[in-house]
Task: structure prediction
Amino acid sequence: MASLLALAMVGCNMREIHWGWPLAIVSSLLYVAVFAKARIYGDASLQVFFAFVALWGWSQWLRGHRADGSALHVTRLSPRGIALTLAACALAWPAVALFLRRFTDTDVPWWDGFATGLSLVGQFLLGRKFIENWLIWLAVNVVSVGLFIHKGLWLTVGLYAVFAVLSVAGYIAWRQRMPAQAVRA
Result:
C-alpha cells in the first residue's frame, strides 16, 4: 500500500498536482515501520519528517510565492543556489551518518546518512519547485536501491528503482514546463 501511494505521489509531483503531498504523508507514515524493522533508522526518522514537511510543501504549492511576490513555479537554482545546495548536501550526509553511528545500532550509517541527508535537501527543493530536486532524488534513489538490496527489502528495491527512473522523467517533465529564463535564488 505504501508503495502504491508513493508512486501516485511522485506521479502527482511530476505533473505539479498538489494532491501528491497528502499521499506523501500517508505513504511516509506507513514506511516508518518498514524502515525501523530493518534498522534503517535514518530513513525511518526521515519518513516522520517527510510527513510533517509534506504539510509545508502542500501549503507552498497551494499558496507559496517567490521572494519577488510572483507565483511559485518551476525554476532553476541560481549559481549561488547550486553552491548552497551542494554545501547543504556535503554537510547533511556526514552529520546524519555520524549521528546514526553514535546513537543507533544501524550497520549502515554512511549509506543511510547519505539517503537521509540528501533527502532533506531534496524535499526542500521540491517544496519550492526547483527543478534540481529531481537530480537530488535520482542520487538518493540510486543509493537507496543498493541500501535496500543489502537489507533484503525487495519490494522497496523495486519501488526505488522505479523512483530512479521517475526522477529522470520528472526532471524532463519539469524542464519542458519551465520558462526559458527561470533562474532564481
The chain has a mean pLDDT of 91. The chain has seven helices and two strands.
